[in-house]
Write a structure and sequence with these properties.
Length: about 525
């Protein structure tokens, strides 16, 4: 119960904001072009302009059938433009113009909050009385809903849920190598230490544990600190109900000590902090490393490629080792999505947009966004949906249909993706969910002044933490100097960062008083 107190408080605050928005927005006269989303009957077509992101793997196509299916359900057609280069650059140009598209995809809530604060984006909560599906959805997914709020309690981006499952980061191990050598997956770091030493003895030229630390350092730090019940930076402790700073805690020190041991004994590559994707792929595919951390989709990535020449190759999910006996085995909470659709405040079709977007928070909208259209992309057998036989790969399915591409979803049934995965990857998803933390870390929005603190003080602290993690692990700085390091990093403004997060979080709770 203690761990859920903050989520309950935040949900209560959010629902009061919603109720206030519904009471003050007033009734709006519907035009003859209002889409009749998800209710059946005759629908008149509305055309909305949209700036959507593009993906090189499945580039936008106006001929994707998803657009036809959406139009059939909502009466809305999108006139889409995509960025010629980076989305952020195109957004800057669009915002500088006087002609904003009705809908705009943004890859981060920091961008939507920035442009919203400037007056360029509509506050979605002002229209929630027109959106019964979204209101119900926010009650079902309070953490995702409150994460979409700006510093002043507004919502400039439509929240997402489901698709973030692809972002899971997990421990992986060579099951075939472990079985061959009579080894069991470790449950603690000390067991991991012993397993790695045995693998090193059996394969002297190997570095049993490897990861692409240099490519995605933030994700790697989060996995390591979560194993030791601490944080990479400022983090929320659900047991104590307050913000803390991980890199000065005793558990963080114990984590550093263990990784120093791994380095000293040659159990990890000497350049493990700078290894990029290509190097990491090479060592994992050539029998030079047997344990790693990466995105869950790597199960199929390696197995599908390697089994062509080595049928016994088996990279599988490994339960995260607890840093110390008595600690819980947990993975970090990465399965959320930052990006989403926003609405231009200058749009002349706000009512139509809100009813259109509300469709995507209905079960009908979720089904369409996830599976497509029955008979065309999927069938139902014994009450279960199955993609038609011509769809055997998620990427190809998206490329051919437009399903689950930018601007076509907010709420996803991830079982659609799972249905196209291998048995190994399906099992990995099932097992990974057992090691989720109690809740997603709070993601409060910050004011301009707070963002300045995070940019200046936060970056200075982060740089110093990274430098000293490297020094302690590699042995260029002795762990006997830990207390001095703590004093030094605290002097850079750690408490200021904690206070900034605390103040931002308190604003959500105070919204309950401001909107009575």
């Amino acid at each position: 119960m203690k761990k859920r107190k903050i989520a309950s408080a935040l949900l209560a605050a959010l629902l009061i904001v919603i109720a206030a928005a519904g009471c003050t927005s007033g009734k709006k006269e519907e035009t003859s072009t209002t889409p009749n989303a998800g209710t059946g009957g005759q629908k008149e077509t509305v055309t909305l302009t949209a700036l959507l992101d593009n993906n090189a793997t499945f580039p936008y196509s106006k001929d994707w059938p998803i657009w036809k299916w959406i139009q059939e359900k909502t009466g809305v057609t999108l006139n889409v433009q995509t960025p010629s280069g980076k989305l952020s650059d195109t957004l800057n140009l669009v915002m500088a113009s006087a002609n904003l598209p009705d809908l705009m995809y943004m890859s981060s809530r920091r961008d939507s909050n920035k442009y919203g604060d400037q007056g360029a984006l509509e506050n979605i909560l002002d229209h929630v009385d027109q959106m019964p599906n979204l209101k119900k959805w926010m009650e079902q997914y309070p953490e995702e809903a409150k994460a979409a709020l700006s510093a002043d309690g507004k919502m400039y981006m439509f929240p997402n849920q489901g698709f973030g499952e692809t972002n899971r980061m997990i421990w992986l191990y060579r099951e075939d190598v472990f079985k061959k050598n009579g080894l069991q997956p470790p449950k603690t770091y000390e067991e991991l230490h012993q397993v790695l030493k045995k693998l090193k003895q059996q394969y002297p030229d190997s570095y049993p544990l490897s990861m692409r630390f240099g490519q995605i350092p933030d994700e790697m730090y989060a996995n390591l600190t979560t194993n030791f019940d601490t944080g990479t930076d400022v983090y929320y402790d659900f047991d104590d109900n307050k913000w803390k700073f991980g890199p000065t805690e005793d558990n963080y020190k114990k984590m550093v000590e263990m990784w120093h041991t791994f380095y000293e004994e040659g159990l990890i590559p000497p350049d493990f902090l700078s290894i990029q994707t290509k190097q990491w792929q090479d060592v994992m595919s050539t029998g030079q490393s047997f344990v790693t951390i990466d995105y869950i989709s790597r199960v199929d990535f390696f197995n599908n490629a390697m089994r062509k020449d080595n049928p016994e190759y088996s990279l599988q999910f490994m339960a995260p080792p607890a840093g110390l006996p008595g600690m819980k085995q947990l993975n970090p909470y990465f399965h959320y999505l930052e990006g989403g659709l926003t609405v231009a405040s200058s749009s002349k079709h706000k009512d139509e947009i809100m009813k259109y977007m509300d469709f995507f928070y209905s079960e009908d909208g979720r089904n369409l966004s996830s599976w497509g259209k029955e008979g065309e992309t999927y069938t139902v057998e014994n009450g279960e949906k199955k993609f038609k036989p011509e769809y055997t790969d998620v990427t190809e399915m998206r490329k051919q249909t437009g399903l689950q591409t930018s601007g076509t979803y907010t709420w996803i049934d991830f079982n659609a993706h799972l249905s196209l995965f291998s048995d190994d990857l399906k099992k990995a998803y099932e097992e990974a969910a057992k090691y989720d933390p109690p809740a997603m870390q709070p993601k409060p929005a910050f004011t301009d002044a707070e963002n300045e603190v995070l940019s200046v003080t936060g970056q200075a602290v982060k740089k110093y933490r990274e430098e000293n993690f490297s020094k302690f692990v590699l042995g260029t700085r002795k762990l006997s100097e830990w207390d001095k390091y703590v004093e030094e990093i605290n002097g850079l403004g750690v408490q200021k960062l904690i206070d900034t997060y605390t103040a931002a979080q308190q604003r959500v709770e105070q919204a309950k008083l401001e909107n009575k």
